[in-house]
Design a protein that fits this description.
Pathway: Cofactor biosynthesis; thiamine diphosphate biosynthesis; thiamine phosphate from 4-amino-2-methyl-5-diphosphomethylpyrimidine and 4-methyl-5-(2-phosphoethyl)-thiazole: step 1/1. The chain is of the alpha/beta class. The chain contains 22 helices and 19 strands. α8 (262-275) crosses α9 (280-288). Bound molecules: ligand LCLJCK34, 4-methyl-5-hydroxyethylthiazole phosphate and magnesium ion (MG).
Length: 542
């Protein structure tokens, strides 16, 4: 059975392991790695196919009537062709009329279910539904950070459509302080939006916009306020806010009282689209399309066949999430310096090539002196070199130069162009890194749409003047405050890299280095030396 139906010689396979490389190079989770057709087939037939499928983990309550909750989530994901695992937070006795009983699962057992799934399977998106107690919210948030789940969709289920309380007021603080700051999107209806905002009255589309903005201010990266209950409108109007722009998404109102389970279904369909790599706004638009709803409710018929799963898998592989950026590329981050190049009489292109040949996993052109035209000339050459090796190249500070040379992204500091504007200019396809010294800056980095954090200077350095050091404690505080991947920078070299990498923060992915690579006689040899050390540290860490 051929794996690649359209004549592809190799497949880009999402996998936790590089199957066709020696053990030394099977480093952590390399998300997109070239894999031969034979290896892909072998892995598929050996039970690893699950690792490739887009995967949503729903953390929600069971609905015995199967119209909402876990059961609706699984059906929606199946209709979208996405694998859905489930962690049950409560068992409800429920039918289309109302909720007759609730049996909450102890937070320890919710944690055990979460760890079982996350320690074994690649989960692209966690979607949350009924979270019956503050303890369940707390363990969920802790485990989301611990396993660095890429995307979190929060359906702030508090009251069922029938009016029954599913999460009492005691959970509100957990939602506000712990879960919303981790949410890539939150999807409240009017009642839930009002509850999240202290019971304010929402009566107009204008109120919905203000609510979306206020909920975004609470930490959610994107907000969809669903206006199905809005009085007096002939269309159903939902407001989507991404922190910058509002989108009014309207569709014909379906006149029915059978709305039980629609919130769960919509949030799950959004989660499934995100798991396949669909950009956020499109994921919401696709999910709101009436066809999707019909598909979800007839999911029993549409339940994915193996052929469909394979097709979706291949589409997911080609256009999947994170295809532009793997956090593992931060392992050895080479940051150039033209003064050092002059000192050692080499061109920027020579320095970049040598660092890659020595094993640099990502390169940043940090050019503080050259005029714009000259910088672009250099950058164009370096982009060509990096691309030929499959190593990403980022530009320091200069969004215009990054655009001109079609670099893979930019690195900006706190006083450079803010991430939110850089993202607006560069779009979703480019990598954006931002320097952070404090947890507050790290939280903002995530909310603004950064892909990674550069944290430092960790140790004293002469490469960057007037830059206070934050030490290993400062680095740890930043790592623990964010789910973004972090690269440490400042005074790092072979002699102290281990002390940095030993920090017990799973999102600390590597070290960014200037002088230890470029202020050296042989860039390739020094890069290779540091790379070997880092590889050994990562290997013993497994
Ligand atoms: C990976 C990485 N982290 C931090 C920095 C520093 O950026 P910034 O704070 O903008 O300072 P300059 O590099 O512009 O002087 C970085 N360049 N790379
Ligand atoms: C750019 C930058 N940002 C924080 S420290 C630093 C310089 C790191 O240089 P080196 O690796 O030579 O200490
Ligand atoms: Mg800068």
């Amino acid at each position: 059975m051929p794996i690649a139906p359209c004549g592809h010689k190799t497949l880009l396979v999402r996998s936790r392991v590089l199957f066709d490389r020696p053990k030394r190079y099977q480093v952590r989770a390399r998300l997109f790695s070239p894999m031969s057709e034979e290896s892909a087939y072998a892995a598929a037939t050996q039970g690893s196919a699950l690792q490739w499928l887009p995967h949503v983990l729903t953390v929600a309550g069971s609905d015995s009537g199967a119209g909402a909750g876990i059961q609706a989530d699984i059906k929606a994901c199946a209709a979208a062709g996405v694998y859905c695992s489930s962690v049950i937070t409560a068992v409800t006795a429920q039918n289309t009329v109302g909720v007759q009983g609730v049996y909450s699962i102890a937070e320890e057992f919710v944690a055990e279910q979460l760890r079982s799934v996350l320690s074994d399977m690649k989960v692209d998106v966690i979607k949350t539904g009924m979270l019956p107690s503050p303890g369940v919210i707390a363990v969920l948030c802790q485990i989301i950070k611990e396993f660095q789940v890429g995307t979190v969709v929060v359906d702030p289920v508090m009251v069922s459509t029938s009016g029954d309380i599913l999460s009492g007021p005691s959970t509100l603080t957990g939602f506000l302080e712990q879960l919303l700051p981790l949410a890539d999107i939150v999807t409240p209806n009017l009642k839930e939006a009002s509850a999240l905002l202290g019971g304010i009255f929402l009566d107009t589309v204008g109120d919905m916009r203000s609510a979306a903005k206020s909920i975004h201010d609470l930490g959610a990266r994107n907000v969809l306020v669903k206006g199905g209950d809005l009085r007096g409108s002939s269309d159903a109007i939902d407001i989507f806010f991404d922190g910058e722009q509002f989108h009014e998404l309207s569709g014909p109102r379906i006149m029915t009282r059978n709305t039980h389970g629609t919130g769960c279904t919509l949030a799950s369909y959004i989660a499934a689209e995100l798991a396949k790599g669909t950009p956020m706004l499109l994921a919401v638009q696709v999910s709101l399309h009436p066809f999707c709803f019909c598909a979800c409710f007839t999911a029993g018929i549409l339940y994915a066949t193996l052929a469909k799963q394979l097709f979706i898998m291949i589409v997911g592989l080609i256009s999947g999430p994170n295809s532009r950026f793997s956090a593992d590329s931060l392992l050895l981050y080479a940051v150039t310096d033209s003064r050092m190049n002059r000192k050692w009489s080499r061109s920027m292109a020579e320095a970049v090539k040598a660092s890659i040949e020595g094993g640099a996993t990502i390169v940043q052109l940090r050019e503080k002196e050259a005029e714009t035209g000259k910088f672009i000339d250099i950058a164009v050459k370096c982009v060509a070199i990096c691309r030929s090796y499959g190593v990403p190249l980022l530009i320091n500070d200069r969004i215009d130069v990054a655009l001109a040379c079609d670099a893979d992204g930019v690195h900006v500091g706190q006083s450079d162009m803010p991430v939110i504007f850089a993202r607006k200019i560069l779009g979703a396809g480019k990598i954006i890194g931002v320097s952070c010294k404090t947890p507050a800056q790290a939280e903002k980095a995530w909310a603004d749409g950064a892909d990674y954090i550069g944290c430092g200077g960790v140790f004293p350095t002469t490469t960057k003047k007037n830059n206070p050091t934050i030490g290993l404690d400062g680095l740890k505080a930043v790592c623990l405050s964010s789910k973004l991947p972090v690269v440490a920078i400042g005074g790092i070299g072979a002699e102290n890299a281990q002390s940095v990498m030993e920090l017990s923060a799973p999102n600390l992915k590597g070290v960014a280095v200037v002088s230890a690579l470029f202020d050296q006689e042989s860039v390739a040899a020094e890069t290779d030396r540091l790379k070997s050390l880092l590889m050994d540290m990562v290997m013993t860490d497994r």
